[in-house]
Amino acid sequence: MAEEDLLGMYDYIAGQSGRKVAGDYIARIESACMSLQSAPLRGTPRDDVVPGLRIVGFERRAAIAFQVKRSEVVILRTFYGGRDYERILRDSPDE
Question: What is the pLDDT confidence band of residue 94, given thresholds at 50, 70 and 90?
Answer without folding.
Answer: low
